[in-house]
């Protein structure tokens, strides 16, 4: 059996009276490429943000290598350094160059010396094809390029799991391709990934497991062939038919 | 016309005799304003950062209490120093210290007292400015920093404050120019700045209007030069607006632009060579 990295159990999250996640059970094992699909407002992003503790869960637990990260006193920054995150809006540091963006975590969090950090950062920038732009500032590059840098920044920390929060939703169709290409490369290399996405083709063809969410509940999860080919739940069928009838 | 000619000759006469005194006064004014603005900024940044330490429900009561007290203290400091005239603060601080200590402790120099009053006063305004600057930075920047494992302090110093600093630069310039002029109220405790020079000169010559004209021109000169320098500094912070076209991006169809400083270019080639 493969090593289990994350285990979410009975997770709930509400904003005031608005219940966004209801009793979610969910786990991630090493090497999994899990895609989370569902309509906007179904709680997919909130689930991802809870896993990275950018949102504090209202109830339930999240185990990372059998340690509950929601417990008081848990070293949250150290945990986040091992669980990378790629945002819909990139969130590159606007005051730094592309290279400095990728070195920031290595220098400040991992306390590496400049040369070591630079070698690692350059290697990952090369992987995402952004070497020619290392001295550009974020405002000088396109959205797709920003997202590739954001992926390199997350990879530079050499995370155990990489979370993607709708990484292509803010991009025009031309740029979606370049980001998905990078992500496919990562899948081939065996990175453990958790991807919230509206790219159904990516979910169906690239991921190893698909989770369907609606109204804060996981309705169905399984192999993408099963979810997309023979969905059991009427909710899943309805969602997918709306997507593929366009 | 004869009035103007008279004014001109009086100014020349004054300048001929007292130029050195006027210039010395200007130096005192500029140096006090520069140092107080810098220290005021430091105070402001400190207060701004302390006020934005996040409190979560899970924190223990001690931390919550301390942070609450700290915020109250900063709030009181800002309100008191923003809400009273600086000229009174100068009197209060300068005479207050010996008063409360029965003359056991006195200010070593007028300069020190003036420095403390102006710096602390500037700090009170800057505290709010910095808080505003921090709030104006996109929350996504904080999330990006947290997501790679940065602590609140690291997030602040390496991501948020540099961006906040850029956005409040016009306000810092504003404060500096206000300080150039408002340090003049320090004459009340006997600090000999540019304005005090005026009082000294007219005491000896009774040439009120000509001396005031020199003062007006002198202050305007200082503020205009500061304005120009501050604008230049802002432009430098922004960096170039345009870039050289880069070589092709292998993944994107979009064209991009970049500059290659020497060292990094070499490093990039090394990685490519691997």
Topology record:
The complex is a heterodimer of chains A (246) and B (274).
Chain A: E1 4-15, E2 18-29, E3 33-37, H1 44-51, E4 59-64, E5 67-68, H2 76-82, E6 83-86, H3 98-109, H4 114-127, H5 143-156, E7 161-165, H6 173-188, E8 192-196, H7 200-205, E9 209-214, E10 217-222, H8 224-229, H9 234-244
Helix pairs in contact in A: 3-4, 3-5, 4-5, 5-6
Chain B: H1 2-51, H2 61-82, H3 86-100, H4 110-136, H5 139-147, H6 152-182, H7 194-205, H8 208-238, H9 262-273
Helix pairs in contact in B: 1-4, 1-6, 1-7, 1-8, 2-4, 3-4, 4-6, 5-6, 6-8, 7-8
Quick rundown:
The complex is a heterodimer of chains A (about 250) and B (about 270). Chain A has nine helices and ten strands.
What does this structure look like?
- The complex is a heterodimer of chains A (246) and B (274).
- With 246 residues, chain A is an alpha/beta fold.
- Chain A has helices spanning 44-51, 76-82, 98-109, 114-127, 143-156, 173-188, 200-205, 224-229, 234-244, and strands spanning 4-15, 18-29, 33-37, 59-64, 67-68, 83-86, 161-165, 192-196, 209-214, 217-222.
- In chain A, the strands form 2 sheets. A 6-stranded mixed sheet of chain A has the order 6-7-8-3-9-10, sandwiched between helices. In chain A, strands 2-1-4-5 form a 4-stranded antiparallel sheet, with helices on one face.
- In chain A, helix 3 (98-109) packs across helix 4 (114-127), helix 4 (114-127) packs across helix 5 and helix 5 packs parallel to helix 6 (173-188).
- The mean pLDDT of chain A is 93.
- With 274 residues, chain B is mostly helical.
- Chain B contains 9 helices and no strands.
- The chains are: A alpha/beta (246), B mainly alpha (274).
- Chains A and B meet through helix 2, helix 3, helix 4, helix 5 and helix 6 of A and helix 5, helix 6 and helix 9 of B.
